[in-house]
Write the structure tokens for this entry.
Amino acid sequence: MKPNIDSQWQHSSGSIYTVYDFSNEKTTQPDRYPVMIHYKDVNGDKWSRPLSDWHRSMTELKVSY
């Protein structure tokens, strides 16, 4: 399952991140160019990791109104 842009996630360490982009979505060589998820922390520092590794340590924060 691909996370939504602007969704918020909590890492197993407790840090909170917001998804802001994806790359390599149209790759024809996923072993060489995996789909990447790009996310930022509350300080605006940017990070990326393979989408296939995302759910290993991230839990979505559900917004309640």
